Amino acid sequence: MDCKKFVDEQITEIRQTVGDATAISALSGGVDSSLVTVLSHRALGKQFKPVFVDSALMREGEPRQVVKTFADMGISVELEDAREDFLSALAGLTDPEEKRQAVTDTFYSKVFGRLVKDSGAKFLLHGTILTDIEETVAGIKRQHNILAQIGIKPEEDYGYSVLEPLKTLRKDGVREVCEYLEMPAEICRRIPFPGPALATRIVGEVTRERLATVRAATAIVEEELGDSGAFQYMAVLLNDRATGIRDEKREFGQIIVVRCIESIDARTATATELPWDKLLRICERITSEIEGVNRCLYDLTPKPPATIEYI
Ligand code: XMP
Fold first, then answer.
1. Is 234's pLDDT higher than 90?
2. Using CA positions, which residue lies closest to atom 11 of ligand 1?
3. Which of 190, 252, 255, 307 would you label with 175, given CA atoms 20 to 30 Å apart?
4. Is 208 a domain residue?
5. Number of structural domains, the chain?
6. Does residue 96 have its Cβ closer than 6 Å to ligand 1?
7. What is the pTM of this model?
């Protein structure tokens, strides 16, 4: 792939499309939205305002860490606290599509609607990639970052236009361009993390308490598997309980699934053959360090038939 050509073309196109207007980006810190943010910053300078939305669904310490990583690259990112917006929209929902829809609506309509209004921005730059579009069009899943493809008109519905400069790339292409632009390794090599964040890793209702459980498990899994070389690894909280024994008393505890996969572009995936002692250590940590969790399972299912995330 000709990275220089891609970068030059996208910068020119962003400049031409945005003109004298202002644009914002929804930076999540993932490799896709980070690349969009760097390209937009180069194309638009002061006309561009990247925003990190704290949705309450992010991983341990993530909001502050993302803002710092970009500050170190000379890009100032605004932190928008939208935790209550998301938690109240998700309250009581258990159906996966309804949960995704609630995140979409809260993100685009409520939070971004508010940010666009306050900033006067006419454009939102988004890190949609080719795989997102293909899977959404194929009806496999409603990806939260697809609008035009599913018949939503952001201009009419929400008052702004969405630009998707990465829509011809897959994940490996995005990483190649990030490396070409010499972006920090923590971004280039960051494992994929979905837009609806930890909401995709909670089966059943998303609450503050259940988020704390899956967040703690995620921190352990990421710490233990950071050097695994796997494509993606995660913790998932099931909506079920199982009997256990702790301190010689019966406990009806929560169940965490660990998923670690090998993949090139997330369209297909297989479970990583992790060493047994590594699996045992993760299980031991999850069931001893996280209150109320007494079972830990390792998911062996490939994609297909499973998807990578649980909702
Ligand atoms: P699935 O679960 O569909 O995931 O097999 C494929 C890849 O996409 C990520 N993913 C998302 N990324 N918005 C995103 O930006 C989403 O709504 C979303 N859902 C899944 C997932 O982490 C995996 O890498």
1. yes
2. 194
3. 307
4. yes
5. 2
6. no
7. 0.88
